[in-house]
Amino acid sequence: MIPYEIIKRPLITEKTNTQKELANQLSFEVDRRANRIEIKRAIESLFNVRVVAVRTMQMRGKIKRRGRILGKRPDWKKAIVTLRPGERIDFFEGA
Questions:
Q1: What is the pTM of this model?
Q2: What is the per-residue burial (b if ≥16 Cβ within 10 Å, else e) of 63-76?
Q3: Which end of the chain is more exposed for a tag (fewer CB within 10 A), N or C?
């Protein structure tokens, strides 16, 4: 797999912003078939940073309802990546 197939998107929420500031950790939505080693290599090659640890978890899709019809969002995989001290990734540059 190429790195752009492994890393789908960064997760940007209040909780992930707090993790980024306090523990130098970032969260990403990743391909469900990717393992920790592949995720680590993909992050290091895409963002040119050094990764200390990768934690992964399988997230279940939520059940949503539109009137009488029930639907389900797809299941996905989440990766929490810890960077070396001094390393950073800026998703939003500027003011």
A1: 0.89
A2: eeeeeeeeeeeeee
A3: C
